[in-house]
Amino acid sequence: MIPWLRANYDCEVVAVVADIGQAEDFEAVGEKALSTGAVACEIVDLKAEFAADYIFPALRAGAMYEGRYLLGTALARPLIAKAQVEAALAHGCDALAHGCTGKGNDQVRFEVTYRTLAPQLRVVAPWREWDLRSREDEFAYAAARGISLPVTPEKPYSIDQNLWHTSTEGGVLEDPAMAPPDDIYQVTTDPADAPDEPRVVEISFERGFPTAVDGERLQPWRLIETLNEIAGAHGVGRCDLVESRLVGMKSRGVYETPAGTVLHSALRDLESLTLDHATAAYKEGLATRYGELAYQGHWFTALRESLDAFIDASHQTVTGTVSVRLFKGTCMPVARVSPFSLYQEDLATFGDDAVYDHKDAAGFIRLWGLSAEVRARVLAGPAGPSTAPPPDATAAPESAVPRVDGAVSRNGGERPARSARPAATS
Ligand code: ARG
C-alpha cells in the first residue's frame, strides 16, 4: 500500500504500526515501512489500553456477536483507528488510509472511528480504489516491486491476531462445508493432543474486572497473556463459525480465544452467584446489544458509554474468585466464592432452617398463578376445564380468589356449577 499511495496520491506516507498483542517482529515491520517508502513509522504499544479499556469492558458486558464470536478483531479496530488519528494529527497529515478490503466489517470500523474522531481528515481506502482484484493480483504487485509478503499463494489465509484472539479466514475456509485443516490453528493445542491431566485455574474478579490468576495480581494485558498460554495449552478457545457481516454477506471464520473463553465462562459463573435474577436477565439483552454495537463499528457512541454505565452499576458486587477446570478443549467452572454471594446456605438447605416458613409458599403460589388460572377458566368457557385441578388443601379464604364460577356467560345463561374446588368451599 505504501508504494501505491505514493504513486497514486503523490503524497508522503507516515506508517502506523499497532502493537496490540500480536506475535510480530515490530522492528522488521518498521524497517519494511521505511524501505517501501514511508517517511516515518510510528510503532505504538496499545496492549495495556486494549486490555483495560476495550477488552475488559466488553467482557464485563458479556459481549458476544451472534452468541459466539468474542469480538477480537472488532474490539481492536476502534483503538487502532484512534492511534492512527493521533499520529496523523501529530504529523500534520491531511488523510487517513487503511488496508481493509471493500467487502468486510473492518473498513466500516476504521472509517466510522476516523469520522467520529477526526471528520476533517480525508479517507483513502486503496483496496476499494486500486485495480488489484484478488490476493493473486496483490502477490504479483508486490513481487514486481521486490516486496516480500507474509502470505503465500499456498497459505492465502487472512489472519488477524491480537492479545484477545487469532482469527483466520479465506482459503479453504471459504467453504463452510469443509472442516478447517489442523495446521490453521496458531495459539491453541489440538484438544486431542492436550494434556491428559486437567488443570484448575483460579480467576479473581473485582467489580466484574479480572484481577488475578491463581492468586497472582496481574495487569489486564498480562493477565490475558498468561491465561492465553494456560488455556491455549489445554486446547481451550477454538471456535469455527459462520457469521453475518455488517455489509450483508455471511462469512466463515475460525477463532482462537483461549483467555477470552475462560474469562467469559468464569465471569458468567460469578454473576450467577452475585447478581439477582432480574438484573442478570436484563443484562443478557444488553450483552447482545453490546456485541452488536462493537461488531458494527459503533464503539465511540453514546450507546456504548451508556451500557458501560449500566454494567458499572450492576457489577459493583461482582467480586470474587472462580475455579475453572480446563481439560481437552473444555473449560468448566467448578467452584466459586464471593464476599457478596447471594447464595445463603441456610436458605437453600434441605435441612432445618429458621428463616424460611414453608407455609408462606402456599399463598405466594396462589397469587403467582392467579392470572394464568383466570385465563384458563375464561378460555375453558362454561364447560370448565377438561381435567379439574386437584382439591387444594391449603386453600386461602374464598374471598381472596376471584372466581368465574356462576358468572353470567355471553349468551346470558348461568354457567353450570364448577367442580374446581371442593363443594364445601363454594
Ligand atoms: N470476521 C471477523 C470480524 O469481522 C474478523 C475479521 C478480520 N479477520 C481476518 N482474518 N481478516 O470481526
Features of the shown structure:
426 residues; alpha+beta; four-stranded antiparallel β-sheet; disordered C terminus
Bound molecules: arginine
N-to-C terminal Cα separation, in Å?
Answer: 86 Å
Tell me which CATH architecture applies here: Alpha-Beta Complex
Strand order of the largest sheet: 9-8-7-12-13
- Binned, the helix content reads 25-40%
SS-based class: alpha+beta
Number of helices: 14
The level-1 CATH class: Alpha Beta
Mean pLDDT: 91
Provide the β-strand percentage band: 15-25%
- What order do the helices and strands follow? HEHEHHEHEHHEEEEEHEEHHHEEHHH
* CATH homologous superfamily (4th level) name: Argininosuccinate synthetase, chain A, domain 2
Please give a structural write-up:
This protein has 14 helices and 13 strands. It is an alpha+beta fold. The chain has one domain (2-337): Argininosuccinate synthetase, chain A, domain 2 (Alpha-Beta Complex). The strands form four sheets. A five-stranded antiparallel β-sheet has the order 9-8-7-12-13, covered by helices on one side. It has a four-stranded antiparallel β-sheet with strand order 5-6-11-10, with no helix packed on it. A two-stranded parallel ribbon has the order 1-2. Helix 4 crosses helix 5 (106-117), helix 8 crosses helix 9 and helix 10 (277-295) runs antiparallel to helix 11 (302-314). The longest helix is centred in the N-terminal third of the chain and has 19 residues, at 72-90. Mean pLDDT is 91; it is low at 406-426. The structure holds arginine.
